[in-house]
């Protein structure tokens, strides 16, 4: 396989946005390497709200904003806050300029915008070593080794295999785990769900645990039961065993004394999936630029989910593409330095917001959430 000038690792929102932007700028000497075997291999993810100055801005520069708007759901920007007794304590209307789109739709828009031969599926990066010239050498799980690139971009998410050649930083467990469940349209609880939880996002905060319900593009719901757990807690549970997972959530330690509505929600939830939440720390965003390699998106700054992750990742892609265009393919080290100087403060702010959000959500009373996080979210009663 010919060596590309720029190797992008990871076809998530960040890597794909970068590929599309390079394509738009006529910088075509890149190849994207993705570990998934094909476009449909990934487990479908949840709904994402795309913000004007970051995600939307990147889509505009990528010439994809009109396509995005075909799928964007402004009605699902509604937000409500409740307590465990079933009281709604705060709500905000629809129509905010942060429309929702399913992750799978966003990925499809981006995938369709990049020539098919620029994406190499089934290429899981195993490790990166440094050659005699101190430039990165890529070792893939399928046995392929690649060297001689001018730049390697790690857009390979939280557990980036590119990161170790740039910084020793490793994500740390936040002490929080989301157990995701699903209520599909054919679920007998669906009508109650739609009536009680409505469009958009409904966050319930009580007793230092949370429930987040979120309506998806097909009208179904994703639910995140947010708990404080030891690291690896859910590895000890067989989540395929619905009854065991539901009984655990219904126990007195978790949601046992929440209103019947929430207990019914648990009794009907299916397709459980555990998300252990990891974060880099603000202090990690201070590395010296490395010749021939950089990071963007979660690989650079994974944080506790704060509603900004995809947006920040796409803003990184835009900044990096702009710097590459400005400095040219002969001066990629200068481009990386400039990009990282712009990325660091945004990443530090995102990690901080993740910490503030987690600190505000895992509280005893939703009013405390409003006091702590309301101003940061632009919420007012
Ligand atoms: C439960 C949960 C809910 C979230 N909700 C939101 C939300 O509502 N809004 C929001 O903005 N953000 C949300 N986020 C965060 C968001 O998902 C991420 O910030 C975003 O996906 C980062 O994009 P990325 O492209 O950098 O990384 P990823 O989306 O992680 O993409 C990385 C890509 O690299 C590939 N890859 C990984 N390792 C390798 C390898 N070794 N070799 C080759 N390819 C590899 C992966 O398969 C993937 O395609 C949430 C996160 C979680 C965990």
Automatic annotation (TrEMBL):
User: What SUPFAM superfamilies does UniProt report for this protein, alphabetically?
Assistant: FAD/NAD(P)-binding domain (SSF51905)
Could you give a GO molecular-function term held by this entry?
Answer: FAD binding
Q: Which InterPro entries match?
A: FAD-bd (IPR002938), FAD/NAD-bd_sf (IPR036188)
Q: Does the keyword Oxidoreductase apply?
A: yes
| Swiss-Prot/TrEMBL keywords | FAD, Flavoprotein, Monooxygenase, Oxidoreductase
Q: Does the keyword Flavoprotein apply?
A: yes
- Domain FAD-binding: start-end pairs: 5-326
Q: Which PANTHER family has this protein been placed in? A: FAD DEPENDENT OXIDOREDUCTASE DOMAIN-CONTAINING PROTEIN, MONOOXYGENASE ASQM-RELATED
Q: What name goes with this protein?
A: Hydroxylase
Provide the species name.
Answer: Triangularia verruculosa
């Amino acid at each position: 396989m010919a060596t590309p000038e720029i190797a992008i690792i990871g076809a998530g929102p960040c890597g794909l946005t970068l590929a599309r932007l390079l394509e738009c700028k006529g910088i075509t000497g890149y190849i994207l390497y993705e570990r998934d075997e094909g476009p449909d291999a990934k487990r479908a993810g949840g709904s994402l709200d795309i913000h004007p100055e970051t995600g939307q801005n990147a889509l505009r520069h990528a010439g994809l904003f009109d396509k995005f708007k075909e799928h964007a759901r402004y009605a699902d920007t509604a937000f409500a806050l409740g307590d465990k007794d079933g009281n709604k304590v705060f709500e905000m209307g629809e129509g905010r300029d942060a429309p929702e789109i399913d992750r799978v739709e966003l990925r499809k828009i981006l995938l369709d915008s990049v020539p098919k031969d620029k994406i190499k599926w089934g290429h899981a990066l195993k490790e990166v070593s440094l050659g005699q010239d101190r430039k990165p050498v890529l070792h893939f799980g399928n046995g392929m080794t690649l060297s001689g690139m001018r730049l390697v971009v790690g857009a390979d998410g939280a557990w980036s295999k590119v990161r170790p050649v740039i910084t020793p930083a490793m994500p740390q467990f936040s002490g929080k785990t989301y157990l995701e469940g699903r209520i599909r349209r054919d679920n007998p609880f669906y009508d109650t769900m739609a009536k009680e939880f409505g469009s958009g996002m409904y966050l319930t905060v009580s007793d230092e645990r949370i429930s987040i319900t979120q309506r998806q593009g097909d009208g179904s719901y994703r639910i995140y039961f947010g708990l404080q757990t030891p690291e690896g807690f859910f590895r000890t549970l067989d989540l395929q065993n619905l009854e065991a997972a539901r009984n655990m959530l219904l126990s007195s330690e978790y949601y046992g004394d929440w209103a019947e509505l929430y207990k019914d929600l648990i009794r009907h939830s299916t397709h459980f999936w555990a998300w252990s939440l990891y974060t880099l720390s603000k202090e990690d965003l201070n590395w010296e630029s490395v010749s021939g390699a950089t990071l963007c998106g979660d690989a650079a700054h994974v944080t506790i989910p704060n509603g900004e992750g995809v947006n920040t990742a796409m803003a990184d892609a835009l900044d990096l593409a702009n710097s590459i265009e400005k400095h040219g393919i002969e001066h990629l080290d200068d481009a990386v330095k400039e990009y990282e100087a712009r990325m660091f403060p945004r990443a530090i702010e995102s990690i901080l917001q993740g910490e503030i959000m987690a600190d505000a959500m895992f509280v005893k009373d939703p009013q405390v959430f409003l006091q702590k996080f309301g101003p940061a979210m632009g919420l007012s009663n």
